[in-house]
Amino acid sequence: MNYHSKFSVAPMMDWTDRHCRYFYRLISKNVQLWTEMVTARAILYGNKNRLLDFNVCEHPLVLQLGGSEPKEMAQAAKIAQDWGYNEININVGCPSNRVQSSNFGVCLMQTPQVVAQCVDAMRQMVDVPITVKSRIGVDNMDSYDELVNFVATVESSGCDNLVIHARKAWLKGLSPKENRSVPKLNYERVYQIKRDFPHLAIGINGGIMDMESSLQHLEHVDSVMLGRAVYHQPYLLRKVDGLIYQKKSSILSREQVLLAFIEYMKVQHANSVLIRSMTRHIFGLYHGQKNAKKFKRLLSGKIVKFEHLYEWLEYTDKNNDQ
């Protein structure tokens, strides 16, 4: 099976909501976007519109699903497919206290058969791809053989696409934040998985900070995923369409991106969405530019009005801030 190289923005709790994803889509037309993790039970019993709604321009769009009960995961997957998602991913990598108390997320690496059961139940309910995002290990279960067993078990259920965060998780002694940086990265282990399972689509995640590194990883695996690097420097996505997908697309300037996002915010604000809940995602738009601090101060003000943003656009145009 042939897979096209992909570039994804990682699912990030409290960050990659629908407003954030719309903003990213303005910069890249082809990057694969992921939702924040949503639990299966929240979808089954919660406000589906609030949890699942998205703008049609966000495609290709992946819903990341949290849970460990096959029937619930399958029912939630069916709802997500009917809602219009292109792919559904099972979270087997999050080490938060919430997932530990409910025994899903990275805890599932300890029970690969449960993950396989979830994949099987979901595949029987939906036609869209079911994928898995994991770590390379958890706690003392961190040998390469154990990772191979996990991948092989998940594959046996029909999953042929995994994204692997190239560091293990410590459930005891480290906070979720520390789990993003303290365990050492081991990219070679992910590369080896691809060599040992050449027929699977294997993606890599963890500590990747720029496009140059992304291209180097794509020499060994099928896809790369960036998280916080994109959130803090979103304009790096302008290179994705050309470098990763070899597609020509009109690259918008920072000012054009901001102007387009202002128009989006106007519509959302008219529907009672707070301006700050949207502007919080664009703090990094001018990262690396000489007036980046001024832009952040503007967005950090007690009152942010659209007029202020138009004034900023006039300022950057006069000062040629590109």
TrEMBL record:
Group of enzyme by EC: oxidoreductase
Domain DUS-like FMN-binding residue range list: 9-300
Record Gene3D superfamilies: 1.20.120.1460, Aldolase class I
Site (Interacts with tRNA): N91, K177, R180
Catalysis performed (reactions): 5,6-dihydrouridine(20) in tRNA + NADP(+) = uridine(20) in tRNA + NADPH + H(+); 5,6-dihydrouridine(20) in tRNA + NAD(+) = uridine(20) in tRNA + NADH + H(+); 5,6-dihydrouridine(20a) in tRNA + NAD(+) = uridine(20a) in tRNA + NADH + H(+); 5,6-dihydrouridine(20a) in tRNA + NADP(+) = uridine(20a) in tRNA + NADPH + H(+)
Record keywords, A-Z: Flavoprotein, FMN, NADP, Nucleotide-binding, Oxidoreductase, RNA-binding, tRNA processing, tRNA-binding
Annotated binding of FMN, by residue: P11, M12, M13, Q64, K133, H165, N205, G206, G207, G227, R228
E.C. code: 1.3.1.91
Molecular function terms from GO: flavin adenine dinucleotide binding; FMN binding; tRNA binding; tRNA-dihydrouridine20 synthase activity; tRNA-dihydrouridine20a synthase activity
Residue numbers annotated as active site: C94 (proton donor)
One Pfam family of this chain: Dus
Cofactors required: FMN
Listed NCBIfam families: PRK11815.1, yjbN
Family to which the UniProt record says this protein belongs: Belongs to the dus family. Belongs to the Dus family. DusA subfamily.
Function as written in the Swiss-Prot or TrEMBL entry: Catalyzes the synthesis of 5,6-dihydrouridine (D), a modified base found in the D-loop of most tRNAs, via the reduction of the C5-C6 double bond in target uridines. Specifically modifies U20 and U20a in tRNAs.
Descriptive protein name: tRNA-dihydrouridine(20/20a) synthase
Organism per entry: Ruthia magnifica subsp. Calyptogena magnifica
Taxonomic placement: Bacteria, Pseudomonadati, Pseudomonadota, Gammaproteobacteria, Candidatus Pseudothioglobaceae
